[in-house]
Structure formats: C-alpha cells, structure tokens
Amino acid sequence: MTSGHGTVRKVMWRTVPILMALYFVNYLDRTNLGIAKADISEHLQLSATMFGFASGIFFIGYVLVEVPSNLALHRFGARRWLARIAVSWGIVVVAIGFAPNAATLLVLRFLLGVAEAGLFPGVIFYLSRWFPGAYRARVVAMFMLASPIAAAVGTPVGAWLIDVGDGLFGLAGWQFLMICSGLPAIVLGVVCWFSLTDRPADATWLPDDEKRWLTDVLAAEEREVGDRFDVPLRRALTSPRVWALAVVYFGVAYGLYALAFFLPSIIAGFRESFGLTLSIEQVGLITAIPYAFAAVAMFLWSRHADRTGGHAGHVAAPMLLGGLAIPVALYLDSPVLVMIPVTLAAMGVFSAIPSFWALPSRFLTGAAAAGAIGLINSVGNLGGFAAPYLTGALDDLLGSPRAGMWAVGVMMVLSAAVVLALRAAPDRVAKPVGG
Questions:
Q1: Would you say the pTM of this structure is higher than 0.85?
Q2: Stretches in the chain below the pLDDT threshold 50
Q3: Domain extent at residue 273
Q4: Is position 429 within any domain?
C-alpha cells in the first residue's frame, strides 16, 4: 500500500532543496543593493530618492513580463524555463557589477526584473503540480525559508564580501559583491536543467505505485476544482477575486521590500539616534536577527495553516501584527527595544506569504492558474517598486524615516483588511449553476 506521506516526503527532498537554493540566490540578487547602499550610493553619486528608484525599477520590468513568463513555463515546462530564468538573471547581476554610472545601473536593474520575471510564480505553480492541497502551505513555506535565511545569512556575508572585495582585482566592494552573487545563479540554472522533472507522470525516480497515487490525488483535486470553477484564462485574469488577491499581495510585498532595502540603513542609523557605532559587518549581523525569527515563525505558522485549513485568516493575522508593530519602532529609545517591533514585523510579513499562495489554487487550475498566479505576483510586486521609492522619497522630503515606516504599517494593515473581506465575500469566479 502506498504511503502518501512517504511519497510526498520523497518529492519534497527531490524538488524543494533545488528550488530553495534558486530562491536563496534570487533573493540575494534582488536585494543586495540594500546591503551595498552606502558603498554604491557614494560610488555612483545616488541620492536617497535615486537609490530607491534604482531599487524599485526592477519591479517595472518584472511586472511587464511576469504573466507571459508564467504562461511560457506552463507551455514549455518548469525544467527548461526555470533554467533559462536563472542563467539570464545571473548574467545581468554580474553586469551590474560593472555599471559605470547611475543610468547604466537603472537600465540593468530594469533588465534584471525582466530576466527574473516568472521565477517565483513559476515555482508556486510548479509546486501546485506536485503537492496535494493538504501539504501546499507548508511546502511553500519550506521553499520560502530560503528568503529569510538569505536575509539572515546573506546580509552579513554580503557585508563581508564588500569589505574583503574592496580593491580586489581593482574592483570596489559593491562590484565584487554583485559578481559573487550573480555567478551562482548561472550554475543553478544548469542544475535545474538536469535535475527538475516537469510533472509526476515523468518522474522515473518514483516507484510506479507512488507515481500513480500522486497522479491520481492531484487529478482528483483538479477535477474537484474544475467541477466548481470552470474558468478560462481570460476570465481568470479579469476576476475580481484574483485582483483582490493582487491588492493583498501588494501590501505583503510593500512590507517585505521596505524591510529588505531599508532595514540595514535603519540599523546603521543607530549611530545618529543612540550614539552606537557599528561596522558594516555588525550591521549585517544585527539585520539578520529579525529574519532568523521570521524563518522559524513562517514554518510553524504554515504548518498550523495546513492543519486548520484557514489560510485567509493565517494571512490576515500576521499582516495585522506586522503592520501595527513597524511604526512603534520609530518611537522607542534604545536599539534593543527598536529591534523587537522590527522583528515582529518581519515575522508577520514572512508568515503571511505561504498561506497566501495556498489561496489561488483553491479556485484555479491549469493555464488559468498559471496566468492568474503570474498576474497576482506581478501586480502585487508593484509594492516592491513603491516601497523603496516612496520610503526614500519621504526620507528625502522630510529628513526622517518615520513617514516611510508609517506608510509600511498602513499598507500591511490594509492588506489584512482586504483578505478578510475577500474571505467573507461570495465567489465571483465560480461557473454558473448548471454551467
């Protein structure tokens, strides 16, 4: 008799570590600008507003290509498409290390968004093709552990690379960081090409009885969704429910990338606020603390979501916690006290993400799911453009980070409110009765 847990565990060990490694490098490559902010701003003469624009323009290219990229993954298969994405983004990151001026940096950051588009929603769609619904949130959480781990480990390592790479081979520290973080993506692209399998039916590494069990379970789930929601791609892309999820994810991404790009700066600001002088390595280590807590919270919270099935509530609660916590940090009078609400905010935003991505597959399948997941991620990730740009602009305008952090809190609370409203609203994409 086939053990469902045993089969899922085999699939998990076969697929998730590769995808985690891919997302680990991906997270570093899109946020390493935050680690190198002081170095690159001085080298290329960037104001806070221009730095925010360089950080956020990535998401413009990302949004433009996201949906077609995910549809291409559905058509050509995850193995080929994820490999293409990884190799192309790695090449662009290495090129950023040789950017001679701000204009070139902006162009390359835009191209990086184009190159990376489709990775995250492609992986989410890929996991939905391999894991039954009862395991989905925790599997997404395991994959996404790469993100807080990358922030926790990558920030101090990135700071160290900037330090040791300054002057090496005639490069500035930030240039050495970019080159060192871009090359692993190219290697992982090759690994994906030879290691991933597109669907369970093609898994020669699974015994026949386990392959049949997994294929049958996933097919039964897809039929159940199809019986309730017979949604063509065009209808999915215009569904109010899909667009509401995109609004929710806008708030999630706003909080996520505001922390990613500006948390190192906030900690470096402890010198001015509290007279605490920190080296770049110490800033990196302190920055890692919230993400270490976030990794543990995300994994445990996702397991609880799968056990209870209340994924919408498991999105709203941590987003509300994080949104209320982040502005509090601006009014506390010691570095230790400041780090407590910052850590709660990081735990909140990361804990919400796995449960969020369990929601679309509840009413979408096939190409409709691929396109809608791409749309949700692309529109939602406009928050990744808005967060660093508006935070930097408000800092320049008012000479203080307080307004920017208040904006982060408001966006996260609004995101929690929308997902609760969405849970209470009737389905708008279900096929008509008798249809």
A1: no
A2: 1, 227-229, 428-435
A3: 7-196+230-424
A4: no
